[in-house]
Design goal:
This protein is an alpha/beta fold and 772 residues long. Helix content is 27%, strand content 31%. The N and C termini lie far apart (93 Å).
Length: 772
C-alpha cells in the first residue's frame, strides 16, 4: 500500500474519491496476485523499505501527543485503569448516566464525581459525553420502540436540555478544575436505539440532533466563559462509517451548530452483526479495513467534509475517532481477541491513521479504543481463558500489546507525540504495510505483515537520519512474541541500512538512535492500594505485573518515600504513620542491568482534629479578653463551638464568633471574661441592708430599756423580730454574691476559666488564667 502512497508524496492535493478508489483497487489487485503467487514459507527475495527522515527537522507532519484513549465501560477499578495507562493511553471517554444524575430536577453528582476521581487518580484526561434524557424532560408519547431504553428519546425542550448540559460544565469546573476540557454531544445519534425519532428515519434523527447540539453547545460555551475556562465541544459521534461524511457535513455546514464545533468525531467499526455471524476470516476483515469505507478511506472523507465547513478554523479542526474496533457486534469473530490477529488488526489500523500524513492531511487528534472492558468480547483487560470473551479480569488481552509497542515509554514512545518521516515506500513486497516517524530520541520504521508469508530478510534503508552515527535495534510483536521482544538485526557499518526478519502476521519495529542502541528496558508495573486514607494508613504495593520483554526481572526495590526501609517483595505491605503525600517508587532491573521505574502517589490525611490555644488580647474596663486560636488537623466536619465549663464567682464568659468556622489552617475567636451584669449592684444593695440592720437593732434595744419592765419586754421582742426581718431581707437581696453565671463557679480566690471547644466528635478543653 505504501509503495503506492509514496507516489503521491510530492502532491499537495488531498485524495479525491476517484483517487482513493483507484488506489484501493490497485492495492487489492496487487494483494490478490501476491497471495496467488506466494508461498507460506519464508521468502528470500529482495525486499527493501526506503525511508527519508528529513533530518529530524520538525518540518514534517506532527503526531499529536496524548493521542491514544479508550472507553472504559465496565472497567472501573483503579488498578486496571493504571494498567491501561501503562500501555501509553492518556485519554479516557466517559458517558455519565444523565437520567440517573437528573432523576429529579436537583442533580445528584456522586456517580460522576466517582468516575472523575478515578480518572484523575490514574492520570487520565476525560472526554465527557452528554447524552440521553431524564424522565421529567421526555415526550409524553415516547418514540422509542419496544425494548429500547426510553432515555434515548429526545427532550421536550432542547433549551432546557442545553441547560442540563451546561450544568455538567459548571460542576466539573468547580469540583475538578482543569480536569475536563473535551465534551461530546450525544452518543451515536444515527442509531434508532440511541436517538429515537418518530418515523425512524435517518433524516428525522439528524433533524432532531442539530437543534440539540446547537442548544447544548451554546449553553456550555456560555458557562465555560463565565467560569473563565476553555473547553472543546464536538460531535456527531456517529457509529456507521458510511454515515460519517453525511452527518459531519451537516454539522459543520449548519450555521446554528458550526459556530460551536471545536472538533469533529465519529466511530469506526468496519464490520457488523452479519459479518460476526458468518464464517468470517482474517482475509475478509483485512479487505474491509483496507477497502472503500475502510479506515483510511473513511478518515480522508471526513477530513474533506471538515475542510469545507463553516466552523471557526476549518482548516485545523481536530478529528477524534471516539470509538473504534474491528466490528460492532458483541459476538466472537475471527480476530478481535485472537493472539495472532488481535495485535495485528490494531497495528494495521494505527499504521493507516499515521499514514494519512502521506496524503498530506493532519493526523487524527484522538483515537479511543472500544473498550477497556465491555463484555462479551470487547476489552483491553479481562480474564484469559479458552473463551477469550472478556469476562471480568485484569490481565492484558493480546491487542493491549499493540498499543504498548506504539505508545509506551521504553518502546516506540508515541504517547508524547512525534513527527512523521518525510517519505516511506516498499519494494519487492507490496503486501507489507509500512510507516515511519521520529520522536525525541529515535527514528523508527514499522513494518506490518498482514499475510501468511514470512520474510527472512527485509532491508530498511535510511536517508537524512539526523544522526551522525545511527545504530539500530528491533522489536517484534506476533503470536510467538506476544509481550514484545527484541529482534535480531544486521546493520551496515554506517548504520544507514538494517536487515531484519519479518514473520508472518507480525509487526516489526526498527529504531535508530545516536550511538549504541541500549537493550530494551524492563516494564515496571506498580499499583498501590488504597491511594489515600487517614493516617495511620495501611497500604499494599503490588509490582507483580512487572516483566522484561527479553528475559526476566533480576531484582526489584520498592521505596515507600517516608524514610523507612525499602522492600524487595513483589507485593509489599506498609503503614504510613503520619499525614503527608508520599511517592512510592518501584525500580525493577533486568538481567542486562537495565532498570525501569514506576511511581505511584499515596496521600495520608490527618484525622479530623484540632489544637486549641489561648493568649491575652486586650482589656476593656473590668472585662478580660483572650484570643483563642484553633489550628486544624485534617478536615473538620463542623464549625467549632465554644463554652465555659468553669468560671470564678461573679464572672461570666462569652465568645465571638461562636460557633467558629475553620476554613483555613487556623482561625481565631475572642474569649471575654467580665463581671456578671447584676453582681456589683446586688453586692452594694446587700451591704446597705446589713448595715441598716446592725444600726437599727441596737437603737431599738436602747429605746426599749427606758420603759417599764413589762412594757420593755414587749418592745424588746418587737425589736428582735424587726432585726430578724431585716436580716432575712438583706440575705435575700444579696450579701456580696450577685453574679449570674453560664457555668459552675469556683471560689473567690480562683482566677481562671475552663474553656471547651467542640467540632463533630472532637472536643478539647483549655484552662485560661485571668491573672496577667
Amino acid at each position: 500500500m505504501l509503495a503506492v502512497v509514496a507516489c503521491f508524496s510530492n502532491s499537495r492535493q488531498p485524495f479525491g474519491a476517484y483517487t482513493r478508489k483507484t488506489l484501493l483497487r490497485t492495492l487489492v489487485a496487487v494483494f490478490a496476485l501476491a497471495l496467488v503467487s506466494g508461498a507460506t514459507s519464508a521468502r528470500a527475495q529482495s525486499v527493501r523499505v526506503n525511508v527519508n527522515f528529513a533530518n529530524r527537522s520538525g518540518s514534517t507532519a506532527a503526531i499529536p501527543p496524548q493521542m491514544f484513549g479508550f472507553n472504559p465501560v465496565s472497567l472501573q477499578d483503579a488498578d486496571s485503569l493504571k494498567t491501561v495507562a501503562q500501555a501509553g493511553f492518556t485519554e479516557i471517554r466517559r458517558t455519565p448516566d444523565l437520567p440517573a444524575i437528573y432523576a429529579s430536577t436537583t442533580p445528584n453528582w456522586s456517580s460522576l464525581d466517582w468516575t472523575m476521581q478515578q480518572a484523575q487518580t490514574a492520570g487520565l484526561h476525560p472526554l465527557v459525553v452528554i447524552s440521553r434524557t431524564p424522565p421529567w424532560l421526555r415526550l409524553s408519547s415516547n418514540p422509542c420502540a419496544a425494548g429500547v431504553d426510553p432515555s434515548h428519546a429526545p427532550p421536550t425542550d432542547a433549551s432546557r436540555w442545553g441547560e442540563l448540559a451546561a450544568s455538567f460544565v459548571a460542576h466539573l469546573d468547580s469540583k475538578f478544575p482543569g480536569l475536563v476540557q473535551d465534551f461530546e454531544i450525544w452518543n451515536e445519534p444515527d442509531l434508532p436505539a440511541s436517538l429515537c425519532a418518530n418515523g425512524n428515519t435517518d433524516l428525522a434523527r439528524l433533524q432532531l440532533y442539530l437543534p440539540l447540539y446547537a442548544a447544548a453547545a451554546s449553553a456550555m460555551r456560555a458557562q465555560a466563559e463565565q467560569d473563565g475556562v476553555s473547553i472543546r465541544i464536538g460531535g456527531p459521534a456517529v457509529s456507521n462509517p458510511a454515515k460519517a461524511l453525511l452527518w459531519t457535513a451537516a454539522l459543520v455546514s449548519d450555521r446554528e451548530t458550526a459556530t460551536n464545533v471545536d472538533f469533529v468525531s465519529y466511530h469506526f467499526y468496519p464490520t457488523d452483526l452479519q459479518f460476526a455471524k458468518s464464517a468470517n476470516t482474517w482475509g475478509q476483515l483485512f479487505d474491509k479495513v483496507q477497502g472503500a469505507q475502510g479506515a483510511l478511506d473513511t478518515y480522508l472523507g471526513v477530513v474533506a467534509a471538515v475542510l469545507k465547513g463553516l466552523q471557526p478554523h476549518a482548516s485545523s479542526t481536530p478529528i477524534y475517532i471516539t470509538e473504534f474496533n474491528d466490528g460492532s457486534a458483541f459476538l466472537a469473530d475471527c480476530c478481535r481477541n485472537n493472539p495472532t490477529y488481535g495485535p495485528l488488526w490494531n497495528s494495521v489500523f494505527l499504521v493507516d491513521m499515521l499514514n494519512s500524513a502521506f496524503a498530506h492531511q493532519p493526523l487524527p487528534q484522538k483515537a479511543y479504543y472500544y473498550a477497556g472492558n465491555s463484555a462479551p468480547y470487547f476489552c483491553l483487560l479481562g480474564k484469559i481463558d479458552s473463551a477469550m470473551d472478556c469476562a471480568s479480569g485484569s490481565t492484558p488481552y493480546p491487542q493491549y500489546y499493540a498499543y504498548q509497542l506504539f505508545a509506551a515509554a521504553g518502546f516506540l514512545g508515541l504517547k508524547n507525540g512525534g513527527h512523521m518521516a518525510g517519505s516511506v515506500g516498499v519494494e519487492g513486497a507490496p503486501n507489507l504495510l509500512v510507516t515511519a516517524f521520529y520522536t525525541g530520541s529515535k527514528d523508527t520504521t514499522v513494518i506490518v505483515n498482514p499475510t501468511a508469508t514470512a520474510y527472512s530478510a527485509v532491508t530498511v534503508s535510511l536517508t537524512d537520519t539526523g544522526f551522525n552515527s545511527p545504530e539500530a535495534s528491533a522489536l517484534v510483536l506476533d503470536n510467538s512474541h506476544p509481550h514484545i521482544a527484541s529482534q535480531a538485526i544486521t546493520s551496515s557499518a554506517n548504520g544507514e541500512t538494517a536487515t531484519v526478519a519479518v514473520p508472518a502476521y507480525s509487526t516489526v519495529a526498527v529504531s535508530w538512535s545516536q550511538g549504541a542502541a541500549a537493550p530494551a528496558p524492563p516494564v515496571a508495573s506498580l499499583s498501590v492500594t488504597p491511594a489515600s486514607g487517614t493516617a495511620p494508613l495501611h497500604v499494599s504495593a503490588n509490582s507483580s505485573a512487572s516483566y522484561d520483554p527479553n528475559g526476566s526481572i533480576a531484582s526489584r526495590v520498592i521505596d515507600f518515600g517516608d524514610g523507612s526501609a525499602s522492600s524487595s517483595a513483589a507485593i509489599a505491605a506498609h503503614t504510613y504513620a503520619r499525614a503527608g503525600t508520599y511517592h512510592v517508587e518501584l525500580t525493577v532491573t533486568n538481567e542486562d542491568g537495565v532498570s525501569a521505574t514506576k511511581t505511584s502517589r499515596v496521600t495520608a490525611t490527618a484525622a479530623a482534629d484540632f489544637i486549641l490555644a489561648a493568649g491575652p488580647s486586650s482589656s476593656q474596663g473590668a472585662a478580660s479578653n483572650f484570643t483563642l486560636t484553633i489550628t486544624r488537623q485534617g478536615t473538620l466536619s463542623a464549625p467549632v463551638s465554644f463554652s465555659c465549663l468553669q468560671v470564678p464567682e461573679g464572672k461570666e464568659c462569652s465568645f465571638s464568633p461562636n460557633p467558629l468556622s475553620v476554613n483555613s489552617a487556623t482561625a481565631q475567636a475572642v474569649l471575654s471574661v467580665a463581671p456578671t451584669a447584676t453582681s456589683s449592684a446586688t453586692t452594694a444593695r446587700g451591704a446597705n441592708y446589713i448595715a441598716l440592720a446592725f444600726l437599727l437593732g441596737p437603737a431599738a434595744l436602747l429605746l426599749a430599756g427606758d420603759s417599764g419592765k413589762r412594757k420593755g419586754r414587749k418592745l424588746r421582742n418587737r425589736a428582735a423580730l424587726a432585726f430578724l426581718a431585716l436580716a432575712l431581707l438583706a440575705s435575700q437581696l444579696g450579701c456580696g454574691d450577685g453574679g449570674s453565671r453560664s457555668a459552675s463557679t469556683t471560689g473567690s480566690d480562683a482566677q481562671f476559666v475552663i474553656v471547651q471547644a467542640s467540632s463533630g466528635g472532637r472536643s478539647h478543653t483549655l484552662t485560661v488564667s485571668l491573672n496577667r
